[in-house]
Specification:
mainly alpha, two-stranded antiparallel sheet, 10 helices, 2 strands, elongated
Length: 257
């Protein structure tokens, strides 16, 4: 799998933090099987530098939360649900396999979120690594493009719901909404959109199942499972209309409009 620029930057930042003058490795025992090592945090003048340790802890925490952030803050939720509905509508059981669907959903998420990631890298991560801005300002700048993307896919009704649940007043500008309101509103909006697309996907395959079942009943073949006969016709229909192209194009264009 291709490693994104953000992951590379995070890795380089961790390596730089470990190699900085504030982190010193010292061997405290003679060489041998029982040798011990100690890690000392200190500045140029010997003073303690807890900020390096804190940055490492924050970085590890961010990496551990990456799967949840990927699911909740990006287009991954809608894509994987639609692909799951498609597989169920066709009745192909475990084909394509879960790994293939998740991999396709990941790469489509990278394509859709590439402009947002680029903007966050240029406006927030790059100045922070260059020590031009602090952590608070970097986080504030990173929230902007992410909020703009999520608000573009979120219904006002869902935002109003979570403003009411969190007992908050509506701000003057949508950009001033807190992530505590924006993230769950975005998620339930994505769930509704994904289920709507799934309903549309089910219709043509449902019609094929009904036609095949009616034909089998009229021929007196009630013991023959209709799914066994309709499956080749559903696969043929999906291939003839170039279904994967249409599905992927519709999903990506849905986020770009």
């Amino acid at each position: 799998m291709k490693i994104g620029p953000l992951a590379i930057v995070l890795g380089l930042a961790l390596a730089a933090a470990l190699a900085s003058p504030g982190v010193a490795w010292a061997q405290t025992a003679a060489a041998g099987p029982g040798s011990n090592f100690s890690l000392t945090l200190g500045g140029a003048e010997g003073g303690a530098r807890l900020d390096v340790a804190v940055e490492i802890v924050l970085l590890m925490t961010l990496i551990s939360l990456a799967p949840a952030l990927l699911v909740l803050l990006t287009s991954f939720t809608r894509i994987i649900i639609v692909l799951g509905f498609l597989r169920q509508a066709m009745g192909t059981n475990q084909m394509p396999a879960n790994q293939i669907l998740i991999g396709l959903a990941l790469f489509l998420t990278f394509v859709i979120m590439a402009p947002v990631g680029t903007k966050i890298h240029q406006d927030a991560l790059k100045p922070y690594l260059a020590e031009e801005i602090g952590q608070g300002e970097a986080l504030k700048r990173a929230e902007g493009p992410l909020k703009e993307f999520m608000l573009g896919q979120t219904r006002e009704k869902d935002i109003a719901l979570f403003l009411e649940l969190t007992d908050r007043d509506a701000p003057e500008k949508p950009e001033d909404l807190p992530l505590l309101v924006v993230v769950p509103s975005f998620v339930i909006s994505e769930l509704k959109t994904a289920f709507q697309i799934g309903f549309v996907l089910f219709l043509p395959f449902l019609i094929i199942d009904m036609v095949v079942a009616s034909v089998l009943m009229s021929m007196g073949m009630m013991m023959l499972p209709p799914v066994l006969i309709s499956l080749p016709f559903k696969v043929l229909l999906f291939v003839l209309v170039d279904g994967w192209y249409l599905i992927v194009r519709s999903l990506v264009m849905g986020f770009q409009n």
